[in-house]
Amino acid sequence: MDRRSFLKTSALAGTGAATLAAPAYAQGKRTLTMVTSWGRGLAGVFDAAQQSADMISALTDGQLTVDIKAAGELVGAFEVFDAVSSGQADMYHAAEYYFLNQHPAYAYFTGVPFGLTSTETNIWYYQGGGKELHDELGQIFGLKTFLAGNTGTQAGGWYRKEINSPDDFQGLKLRMPGLGGQAMGKLGASVQAIPGGEVYQALASGALDATEWIGPWADEKAGFQEITKFYYASGFHEPGVGLALATNRDVFEDLTPAQQTAIETAAAVTNQNNLALFIANHGPALQRLKSAGVKVLQFNDEIWDAFGRASIEVMDSYMDDELFAKIRNSAEASRGSTSGWISQSESVFVAQRDRVLGG
């Protein structure tokens, strides 16, 4: 459903056929203001915003220029949605699970607990109807949105102490946005949503006992290893994290078809390149963290089971929302239709390759 009303006019020709007026597109060069949820220099995520902006300019031969505003330069990290929806800014680049207060289904276009991996996300988005559902959701808020980045599977996070049972989350001051954060709240954690650029200080000051961010490369760049040495490598909360590029829909529709295609193409290319950027850097960064004395851990099965129960409870609590249910069912149907082949082909191959050749 689109919350805006569109006026359509027609004229009847002598033959009785209706003739619609051709769209009027803005002429000449144009600068679009992009607000982001990222501080300048945040590894990987700000890179995705920058690549999207640079590619839009290149693909339009300079007819469109994107002026990037990092978090706090025009609006706060979590205020970018309202800024673009209202027309204060033209575009945003963000992780859309920051905007659950606008609609809980936005979680699916970042990542949900026990959800889709990056490969599964792209299959759903480009071949399983996810892109169309993203657009349907965006229309409600006057946005035209595309995936434009992916971090891969995110780490379980940094903790001041080892976590040996679900009881260890009781009262823990933890930074984790999205539905994963809500699941941790079910386990007794005191969950906070803090913009990425503010996490280091919160952890260093003791305002946080633990935090998740992205993965070894981005986390090393953020400096969390300077504060704590307990690092859980695999998390349940964000298995294939999408980043989004959204344009105010009135602005988007005022662009030429070629310019609109340039934005969509820039987002798609950034989506693929950004995933490669993260994965290429995570492995070497993990080795550096180990060499620096970081203890790399995994949650035990008892904890994973607790994550699962809490996650299902959170997800089910939103099923009375028709659009959330539609998007959840679509994503899970896509996963079900592809996981059988992936588990029997790629997953087996990787396990056997590592067994034969070494990891």
Task: Please describe what this structure looks like.
The chain contains 12 helices and 13 strands. By secondary structure, the protein is an alpha/beta fold. The strands form 3 sheets. It has a 6-stranded mixed sheet with strand order 9-8-10-7-11-13, covered by helices on one side. The chain has a 5-stranded mixed sheet with strand order 4-3-5-12-6, sandwiched between helices. α1 links the parallel β3 and β4. α3 crosses α11 (322-344), α7 (216-222) packs across α9 (257-291) and α11 crosses α12 (346-357). The longest helix is centred in the last third of the chain and has 35 residues, at 257-291. The N and C termini lie far apart (49 Å).
